[in-house]
Amino acid sequence: MKLLGVINDNNYLDYKNLDGIIMPLKDYAVDYFNYYSLDEIKTYKNNTNKLCFVVINKMIFNKELDNLLKVLKELEKLEVDGVFFYDLAVLRLVLENNLKLNLIFNKTHMVCNSDTINFYYEKGVKGAYLSNEITKDEIIKIRKNTKSDLFILLLGNPVTAMSKRHLLTSYFVNKKESKKKELIIKEPISKQQFLVREDNNGTSFFYNKRLNLSNVYKELDKAGINYGIIEQGSFSKEEYEKLINSFINFNKAKIDKLAGHNRGFLYRETIYKVR
Amino acid sequence: MKKIELLAPAGDLERLKVVLLYGADAVYVGGVKLSLRANATNFTKEELKEGCTFAHNLNKKVYLTTNIVFHDSDRIGMEEYIKEAIDCGVDAFIVSDIYLANYIIENYKHVEVHISTQESITNTESAKFYQELGAKRIVLARELSKEEIKEISSIPNLETEVFIHGAMCTCFSGRCALSNYVTNRDANRGGCAQVCRFAFDYNNNDKFSLATKDLNMAYYIKDLIEIGVSSLKVEGRMRSLYYLATVIGSYRFIIDSIYNNTLTEEKLKEYQQRLDRVANRDTTSQYFAHEADDTDQYYTGRQEVSNQEYLGLIIGYDDATKSIILKERNYFKVGDLVEIFTPSGEIYPYKIETILTEDNEVIDVARHPEEILKLPFKRRLIPYSMIRLIKKG
What we know:
By secondary structure, chain A is of the alpha/beta class. Chain A has a domain at 2-150 and 216-231: TIM Barrel, CATH 3.20.20.70. Chain A contains nine helices and 13 strands. In chain A, β6 (127-129), α5 and β7 (149-156) form a beta-alpha-beta unit. In chain A, α1 runs parallel beside α2, α2 (65-78) packs across α3 (88-96) and α8 (237-248) runs antiparallel to α9. Chain A is globular and about 50 Å long. Chain A starts with a strand and ends in a 16-residue tail after the last helix. Chain B folds into two domains: 5-296, Aldolase class I (TIM Barrel), CATH 3.20.20; 310-391, Translation factors (Elongation Factor Tu (Ef-tu), domain 3), CATH 2.40.30.10. In chain B, the strands form four sheets. In chain B, strands 1-2-3-4-5-6-7-11 form an eight-stranded parallel β-barrel, surrounded by six helices. Chain B has helices at residues 13-21, 45-57, 78-88, 98-107, 124-133, 146-153, 178-183, 221-226, 241-259, 265-278, and strands at residues 5-9, 26-30, 61-66, 92-95, 112-115, 137-139, 159-166, 199-202, 206-209, 214-216, 231-234, 283-284, 310-318, 323-328, 332-333, 337-341, 347-351, 355-357, 362-363, 365-366, 372-376, 386-391.
């Protein structure tokens, strides 16, 4: 399994032990903490021989389509290793314009079954970033049923929701208080906490308990999951490097000590018929 | 030009009949599988067949929601389920998952596929992608402005459907798993617990709410007709008969009056008030006229108010006492001013002077929901007529 980082500090050229990084594109990506310009992506490409994946996962509106095509053409020129996409406008523009870009199906909570991944694969989409809300057995089953490259979040704060609304702005306007760009909220009964973050594209909600799949890392690697994503989150440079190295020279105890034991939905099938 | 469609929700067979009788051109329902409202009553095969027959006899249509984001285990029996639904007579499937959409398009040329709002289609490129796949219609994202709806609706030979009334998701449809994380109920497989309506703790003693007000587009129906939208959708498969009858009846009146050039500002205001009365939350036009902002939100947790103006469903006529027979829903008494309204749009103002029990005993107060009562009335009314409170006596 190749290890990809999502870097939150300014040292995106420094994490040499990773196989590559994921760079959410400024103005075209949502649900991340740090975004990159085309120039920064170019800098990364020019200064490393590592993998470089770009994220364009916002909902696209008509007024953005012309620029989106220009951006995709730029990314083709930069020969990035792949583009994570949510909106099918990206797929159609790539197909219509015969752009040589590897696409990765990245519909956050909607990448849950083999058939859909295979459908996109046959359309030329080479990879799929699996949803965080599926079980380990489902991940392995999908691996067996598809040829697509599969990406999973190994470690990080899962995004739980995204709104076009500027919910923090509205909240603080209503309270007549100065606006905060980020806050933590807690659901009082379940005690679950969420980090809420607002930017120009709207508001994202992140689960405030870090997901850590160290316990199945080896099994998923053996099963053939191609890419594991390790987000820096709130880790310092030193801690993050330690984490990355603990995956490379696998040391579960070290990883868990740093990142906790939340295994997400690995063994917890969601229910949907409440009787 | 084809008249715009009024599309209503129905959580069960009775609701299906009511909304079609009150003026919907088509109805969307969930079956026992693949539907995003796992807790709606949902239709068995037999009910679906009966619903389709009922609708087709009125020259109306039935759309089946099959819009879950399925996991591999949900795949079992999918083909058989689709075939059964087609045999029952459904006119279209509302689908989110692209594999399923493609499966139906490739295997059943005579049945329409409508792409669900779960896909949050916000631009012409993604709309064209689905059109090229073979979808007949797309249900647009609720985050679009008038101009954006117009641009997508101008794509030739692709129908667009927009929500005009009811509850709104706070987040982009499909881009929310809050329910999964808080309740373990899968939002994209029909288990959404509406966590966006919960009050969250913030900063120890503050409350944070992300709940939105409801949608009400009564004032913008003319615009939606003019910009080329094909279908106007009302949300609420689990809403009451009374709510559905009032909302569908009101929009039927508004649409017909626009086409007949008879809609006055006064009438529009009257129907807007009727819609407001039956609503259990405040309403706005959300993104249509401006970017959603602080005026479209709630700030103090759950905001639903219980509506008690629905007094009863008329279920028959008693020739002996010349009375309508009704099943009581809410408290009423002698002296109350009410309106009796019918699926065909007639409205009769009425002052309650006598209330009879099933055994013709005279009472002053009706206080037991589900009780069968009678009210003297000179004419027989069609089934599913209802009574609402206007003013307490």
